[in-house]
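Long-time lurker, first post. I've been practising inverse folding by hand and with some scripts of my own, and I keep getting stuck on stretches where the structure tokens seem ambiguous. Below is the full token string for one chain I'm working on. Before anyone asks, I'm not after the true native sequence, just a reasonable design that respects the backbone. If someone could post their per-position residues I'd love to compare against what I wrote down in my notebook.
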């Protein structure tokens, strides 16, 4: 049973340790081949993790910038850490690769893929995709400009969207695709921070850069098939389509990790979790606010889970930094997904809760 598995049952050696003064240029070279993540050490002190995606999206000078500048602090796993706890920590810290330590030395890495691989075989592999997918699908058309799609990414805090024409799926475009095109145009890779609809790059139609190869599943497909496609294609999400090839949902690694954690922690009718890579966030205060809101509506909501995600808006000047909050409420009696942006985490959360309350009251009155 996957609930009894430990980190040592799923860890791999697909990692390397680099020094804090390694440049991003050299780090990219280290990530070629059989390496998913770099763990950064400053002498003997562990500083955090770096992935290829983080390097690309940083937009920093790769010849001059050191990995220490973008390394993300991560929890330290032990070999005996339960695999479900690994999944919970991935969600909470918004990172899908965690190091395993023994005697202060890194001996392995547990990835979301390995966790889901174990879960698909022994826990929820036979469950239907439609029971776990996100139904609020954001899409674009082939004629939409890169500028328009970047605004979708920014507004909804997503990194990929299906491309449709006449309702039919034609392709998919990701942040990675746009960053690669920005590099070809000799533009700054941090495309969200330097967005400008007057520049040639941002006027390009999405059909010029989208991928026409899209991994898809049907709503009645089993989750095991979806996980197999996620792992074999090394992607973060599959598109769920109906018999007419129309997108009806998305299933991401995060959706699957959330379900795994929920199955383990059924002691509370509604499980609440805060997720963010923001280092100075007050998780306890936000957790209390969210739990108080849920507790007052326990009978109305039934059983399930609620996740609140926080991210700093990277496209604004530093003096105007704002926080984006997304709340996903999935219970036996309600399914709500809202988002808001405000100067602080608490303000953004309260705005989300206000919108959830309005949705629930609207549903009750209908």
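-- Answer (accepted) --
I ran through it position by position. Result:
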């Amino acid at each position: 049973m996957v609930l009894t598995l430990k980190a040592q049952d799923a860890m791999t050696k697909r990692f390397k340790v680099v020094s804090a003064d390694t440049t991003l240029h050299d780090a990219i070279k280290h990530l070629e081949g059989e390496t998913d993540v770099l763990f950064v050490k400053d002498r003997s002190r562990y500083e955090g993790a770096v992935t290829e995606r983080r390097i690309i999206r940083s937009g920093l000078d790769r010849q001059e910038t050191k990995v220490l500048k973008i390394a993300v602090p991560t929890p330290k796993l032990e070999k005996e850490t339960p695999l479900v706890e690994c999944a919970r920590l991935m969600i909470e810290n918004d990172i899908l690769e965690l190091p395993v330590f023994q005697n202060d030395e890194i001996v392995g890495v547990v990835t979301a893929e390995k966790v889901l691989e174990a879960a698909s075989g022994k826990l929820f592999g036979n469950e239907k995709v439609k029971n776990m997918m996100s139904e609020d699908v954001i899409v674009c058309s082939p004629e939409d400009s890169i500028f328009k799609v970047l605004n979708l990414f920014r507004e909804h805090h997503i990194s990929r969207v299906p491309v449709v024409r006449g309702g039919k799926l034609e392709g998919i475009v990701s942040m990675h695709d746009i960053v690669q095109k920005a590099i070809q145009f000799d533009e700054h890779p941090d495309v969200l921070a330097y967005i400008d609809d007057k520049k040639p790059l941002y006027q390009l139609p999405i059909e010029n850069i989208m991928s026409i190869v899209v991994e898809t599943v049907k709503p009645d497909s089993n989750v095991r098939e979806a996980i197999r496609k996620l792992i074999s294609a090394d992607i973060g999400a599959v598109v769920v389509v109906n018999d007419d090839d129309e997108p009806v949902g998305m299933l991401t690694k995060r959706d699957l990790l959330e379900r795994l954690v929920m199955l383990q922690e059924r002691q509370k009718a509604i499980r609440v979790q805060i997720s963010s890579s923001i280092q100075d966030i007050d998780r306890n205060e936000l957790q209390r606010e969210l739990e108080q809101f849920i507790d007052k509506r326990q009978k109305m909501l039934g059983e399930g889970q609620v996740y609140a995600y926080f991210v700093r808006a990277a496209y604004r000047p530093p003096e105007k930094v704002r926080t984006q909050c997304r709340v996903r409420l999935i219970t036996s009696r309600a399914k709500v997904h809202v988002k808001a942006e405000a100067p602080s985490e608490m303000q953004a959360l309260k705005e989300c809760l206000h919108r959830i309350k309005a949705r629930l009251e609207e549903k009750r009155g209908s």
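A couple of notes from the structure itself: Residues 2-111 form a domain with the CBS-domain fold (CATH 3.10.580.10). The CA atoms of residues 8 and 79 lie 5 Å apart. Happy to go over any region you disagree with.
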